[in-house]
Amino acid sequence: MHDDAGLQALREAARLSPDNLPLRQHLAGQLLAKGYLAEAEAEYRAALVLAPKNADITAGLAEAFVRQSAFGAALAALEPLLASPGYPPRLGVLAARALFGEGDTARAGYRYHEAVSRDPSVADADLAARLSAPPAPLYATAPPAAAAPADETSTEVEHSGLTFADVAGMDTVKEALRVKLLLPIQQPELFAAYGKRAGGGVLLYGPPGAGKTHLARAAAGELGASFVNVGLADILDMYIGSSERNLRATFELARRNRPCVLFFDEVDALAARRSDMRQAHTRQVVNQFLAELDGVDQNANEGVLVLAATNAPWYVDVAFRRPGRLDQPVFVPPPDAAARAAILRILCRNKPLAEMDFDAVARVTDQFVGADLKGLVDRAVEVKLQQSISAGRPIPLSTPDLLAAAKSVRPTAVREWMATARNYVMHANDSGAWDELMPWVKGKW
Question: Which of 24, 222, 260, 310 has its CA 20 to 30 Å from the CA of residue 170?
């Protein structure tokens, strides 16, 4: 870089005028274009201090991270902007590149197709080829040989061994699931007297890692029902019509194995607001989902309990909240201190233990969700295993072990999620849909 007189002049100008945002941004862009990635990252960071929410600067920083294979750092930089409705599509493509770099092909494909559907000009031919998708925003129709039969799906039926006893805390959430989904099947005569059918849907929402998937498995185990866990890769397909066929086949699988809990994770990817979509084929997936929830007749989905989970309920099309569909949003909150202690007890059972004070650990793990607590226990166990190998015998896990691990583990996305939720509750809640969150966003979060 020292041989590039133009860059040296820009750097000197930026040194003399450190608060000149356009100058810093231009310097960062030139450094990025010429491949000086570490220097570009430093300049973009300095520019972000001056304009923390600038989408162009964030995109440049994320680009620098991606080109240095720092995919996690790129996603962390992009996440606050991706949580905002109508974010620039080019940020979605950058996120797709980072997700693909981390090996998360399903989410990368979703991010890429969503971004390109809103702005075809951001299409990335190389990334599209790597995702096994066409480089243009218009999709080809599936050749006859590639189309899966309507009654076949790669999704498998499971039988969960979990029950609500394996779910710490969440008493309000568990009670809502019992009344809405479980009791109509467990006491059909009583509910039939009031004209209530066995079936229906619930939308679980809350911060990442709070235990929504774990709760869905426990609901299936509590009922002794079949469990079908549906991921994005099971539904989304590059060919027009194939995603709709996959949805129909998945619902047919659940109907053949009723009573069945049909669980859709990251449902905002399949049930996004149609007003945000530019192309008809993406809207048709939402239409098909709504049609399957309604069923061909009033008894079509009897015994099929649809649980859907999302970290971004505000992106789900409002039609899904119509009665008879996912009409009961249920907030899955971060665990309080008592729930954290109960989670730790469950995570530590069947392990060699000394006398434990889980309440003490719970007090120092404020803002930790279930996934964070599992990471904490795993880290403590790894340290204890090393000690046990050296000693030649199992050494019990103790309270100081968990407290030491808690110092090295940081909570994930609860505070960031609550900040996003606060924006919707305070500024986009005319319908009252998010009143349930009001006590949380007005509290310490």
Answer: 260
CATH number of 5-130: 1.25.40.10
Q: d(Cα 74, Cα 3) in Å, to the nearest integer?
A: 29
Beta bridge partners of 351: none
Domain ranges, ordered by start, for the chain: 5-130, 149-331, 337-408
Which CATH number does 149-331 carry?
A: 3.40.50.300
CB atoms within 10 A of CB 219: 28
Instruction: For residue 131, give the 3-state DSSP assignment.
Output: coil
CA distances from 74 to 62, 66, 67, 161, 352 (A): 4, 6, 10, 38, 40
Q: Does residue 161 register a pLDDT over 60? A: yes
Beta-carbon contacts of residue 97 (< 8 Å; ≥ 6 apart): 66, 74, 108, 124, 127
| Lowest mean per-residue pLDDT among 23-27, 86-90, 141-145, 253-257 | 141-145
Q: What CA–CA distances, in Å, run from 110 to 117, 269, 270?
A: 11, 7, 9
Write the pLDDT tens digit of every residue in 174-183: 888 887 777 8
- Taking residue 140's Cβ as centre, other Cβ atoms within 10 Å add up to 12
Q: What is the mean pLDDT of the chain?
A: 81
Report how far Cα 176 is from the mean position of its chain's Cα atoms. 22
Q: Which residues contact 157 (CB under 8 A, 6 or more apart)?
A: 226, 227, 228, 253, 257, 260
Spatial neighbors of 250 by CB under 8 A, at least 6 apart, are 153, 155, 228, 230, 234, 235, 262
SS3 state of residue 245: helix
CATH 1.10.3130.10 assigned to 337-408: no
The residue assigned the tokens 């007003």 is 275
Per-residue pLDDT tens over the stretch 188-199:
777 777 777 666
pTM: 0.61
For residue 121, CA distances in Å to 88, 118, 290, 301 come to: 12, 9, 30, 41
